[in-house]
Amino acid sequence: MLNTKIIKSTSRLPFHSPWFIIIIFSVLGLIGILNHSMWRDELNPWLIVRDSESFGDLIANIRYEGHPVLWYFSLAILIRIVDNPIIMQIFHLAITVASVTLFCLYSPFNSQQKFLFSFGFFPFYEYLLISRNYAFSMLFVFAFCTVFSSRKITYAYLAILLGLLANSSAYGLLVSFSLSLTLLAEFCFDSEHRQHYFSQSKKYDLFLSIVIIAFSFILSIYIISPPTDSYLHGGLNNGWVMQLDIRHLLRSIGRIFGSYLLIIPQHKRWLDLIVCAIITLFIVILTFIKLFKKPVPLFFYFIGNCVIFAFTYLRFTGMPRHFGHFYLVLIAALWLASYYQESTVLLNKFLIRPNSIIFVQKWHHIALMLILYAQCAGGIYSFSRDLVVPFSASRQTAQYIKKSGLDNEFIVASRDANMAPLSGYLNRKFYYPELQKMGSFTLFQKGRKDVDQAEILSQINSLFKNQDEQKKILLILNHQLNVNRNDLKISPITDFQRAWVDSERYYLYWVDEA
């Protein structure tokens, strides 16, 4: 009876209702995330939290990851509730649903734009199905936009959100820094806002807000700064690009294009790079002119893009989850613009005619809708693909191991970094040849050494010799075994090759002494 009432109530929701979007998004999101097979980047943080021996050990391990503490502390709480990584997925779903809820209920976009955004590539796939810390960026940026008007009385709420955003990811830190500079610019140059704030706020509010932001930035920078013995440097092992490289510059601009239209230009093809750069600059200029009557959001759009672009060019071009923050900056700038009355200050200084603004706004609307449609198409495609093709073969492999009663066997697994999903799903450690000891998560630090298959078999042979009770070993590889040893008997068991991530297809073998 209750189900019938719920179905009838839901069916009466009009398409333009924000709650219609939220409900459909939540239901599909739950289906998608429970179907999703997690990979190493999702489960390695879970294992770090699970298997760190102390709080100090946890902090030390996090520093090798290149990420701030917020996601790991969240996992530490979750793992005390349920020692099963599925709770991480449910928590991640809740973050994304909360983000979409804020967007649908409080953003100034029309119902069509809200629908297209919500089911776009980043909210509906990248920051939904793949349980990582980047979903926090969307949540805290949208929460910031939602409570932005509170700055007239207090900066404390915004400072807390900026602090959380800064400690969510390195890119969250960049966006948080950009938003902080935006607040500072408005406070310094808008005397009317400043006078209104001082007349309404408490005496300690400004000082407290500055302390919160400063402490959060210092904490984030300290944690993401890799230890001296880290050779991957939190994934940023390519060094700094300090010289002018036109191809690399166009490639970096292509990351903005990729964040908007989900196409990453081929870095080896000049034509692709140039065409995508021209389209990107056209969209950026349209947005600049559209925001010319709103100086504060314009400042944020400018500084946000500059900060992320500088990092993209100088340090790390990134993957969609990284350069997707360009897209968040665009959406946030347009959202913040709704809080401001139009001003002619910049128009008068740059001698731009009001008719030009109207003309540009029409073209910007077309560009924005094109972006949203591309995002929606990419989101639905990627979400559907994940339902059909497992992202990783980890879950299927782990289910087979459990069903076959192999989870209590002595397991040698390599490559260690690609075995984190199996360790997470099986809730146990393996012997890693890269470490020459038992382990679960991977830290790219001194002492870890990549090994080839011949070395793996050599270590297995040593294990047999040093452990008399060891009769056979279950060997798991992420590439098919193509070497052999006369003193070992190796029998293939099965393999799991159906996975989107080609480095997480697994091959199982029995190894006995010959």
What this model shows, in words?
- This protein has 514 residues and is of the alpha+beta class.
- The chain is 61% helix and 6% strand.
- The protein is built from 22 helices and six strands.
- Helix 3 (40-51) crosses helix 21 (420-426) and helix 9 packs parallel to helix 17.
- The longest helix has 35 residues, at 354-388.
- It is elongated and about 85 Å long.
- The termini are far apart.
State mean pLDDT (0 to 100 scale).
Answer: 92
Question: What is the global morphology?
Answer: elongated
- The helix content is 55-70%
Percentage beta strand: 5-15%
Poorly predicted ranges (pLDDT <50, ≥5 residues)?
A: none
Q: SSE string, helix = H, strand = E?
A: HHHHHHHHHHHHHHHHHHHHEHEEHEEE
Radius of gyration over all CA atoms, rounded: 26 Å
Strand neighbour order, sheet with most strands: 1-4-6-5
Biggest beta-sheet profile: 4 strands, mixed
Number of helices: 22
| Number of DSSP strand runs | 6
**Structural class determined from secondary elements:** alpha+beta
Distance between the termini: 66 Å
